[in-house]
Amino acid sequence: MALKQPETLLHVQTAPPPFHPRVLPSHTLSADYAVCREVMRGASRNYSFAARFLPADKLPHVEALYALMRVGDDIVDVQYRGTAARAAIEQFEELYWRAFDTGSSSHPVLRAYLHTAHQFHLSPELMRPYFRAMSEDLSISRFPTFADLLHYMDGSALPVGRAMAHILGAKTRHVRDVYKQADALSIAMQLSNFWRDVAQDWSRGRVYLPQEDLVRFGVTEDDIAAGRITPNWIALMEFEFERTEGYYRQAREGVRRLASGRWAVMSALEIYHAILTDIRSRGFNVFAGRAGASKWEKLRLVASAWRQVR
After folding, report:
1. Cβ-proximal residues to 230 (8 Å cutoff; 6+ apart), any chain
2. In CATH, what number is assigned to the domain containing residue 192?
3. Do 255 and 309 touch, CB atoms closer than 8 A?
């Protein structure tokens, strides 16, 4: 089934209220950004690899953005369970809003992000959907429709792309003019992770494949649990991949509209898109091994990205 237009979901962002971060000693701020750098390097090989090709003056701010969102992810996925996880993510959200209210924080990642937000005029409201999605992660483990999954990604993915657009800048009159393409890339990258991590997510009790698609293609959760590669499974994956490819196509149009960091963003696009290519080469077997580009393949993709944006 061909999709002429990828679905989109836009979150209306209000104008940022004024805030005044406290001026920190340079060594303290450097240490905060160093914490963010370690968080990103330890959590994502793909993202960290592509980020190497960012302008030097933008990289620390991207690391702060990534670290902010990773802290919340780890709270709900790794560090805590049950009511303790809910209490922890609520506490982290409270620290986030307090940081913007007071201009400082006791948390190094929040201090770094607060500085980044001030530098690039990022509204505190940009992350409100993110905290909503993290809370939903603790109670929602199935998505009846793709529209429901999009609603989740409105918080778990879109804030990243929009914040990146502000950090890197746009050639357009307003940064918001590239939101549509930024959203598309955020969705495409997260969908690629969802399809790669089907088995891992199942082990955590989550299924990101929309229930309506499972029914349509005759795939059951028992099939997922058993890791069955059936004709129905392949048809389902082909459908989800075609949908994801639509977002990648839309995202490519926006990379060239960025004012800086185009090489790094196109590299990230190519590296995450390679997840789909590798899954296809494995016969859609996402139950044995982790799909993705090798180090040498990433270097080839980075070279290809450079040719596309130079």
Report:
1. 219, 223
2. 1.10.600.10
3. yes
Structure confidence at residue 4 (pLDDT): 39
What's the pTM?
Answer: 0.88
| Residue 139 CB contacts under 8 Å (≥ 6 apart), including other chains | none
Clarify whether residues 114 and 174 are in a common domain. no
Contact predicate 248/269, CB 8 Å: yes
Nearest CA to 243 out of 289, 268, 219, 208 is that of: 208
Same domain membership, residue 253 and residue 191: yes
Same domain, 148 and 106: no
Q: Tell me, what amino acid is at 279?
A: I
**Are 309 and 175 found together in one domain?**
yes
Cα(270)–Cα(177) distance, integer angstroms: 23
Q: Same structural domain for residues 210 and 80?
A: no
d(CA 161, CA 167): 10
Mean pLDDT within 134-138: 89
Per-residue model confidence (pLDDT) at position 80: 58
pLDDT in tens, 230-264: 999 999 999 999 999 999 999 998 999 999 999 99
Q: Is residue 191 part of a domain?
A: yes
Instruction: Supply the range of the domain harboring residue 258.
Output: 141-310
In whole angstroms, give the CA distance from residue 193 to residue 82: 24
Model confidence band, residue 154 (pLDDT cutoffs 50, 70, 90)? very high
Instruction: Provide the 8-state DSSP code for 25.
Output: P
Domain shared by 123 and 204, yes or no: no
The reply to whether 237 falls in a domain is yes
Q: How far apart are CA 172 and CA 159, in angstroms?
A: 19
Q: Are residues 240 and 294 in the same domain?
A: yes
Token pair for 164: 């990146």
Q: Where are the alpha helices (DSSP H) in the chain?
A: 26-43, 45-51, 59-74, 82-102, 108-120, 128-137, 146-156, 158-168, 179-196, 198-203, 211-217, 221-226, 231-255, 262-281, 295-309
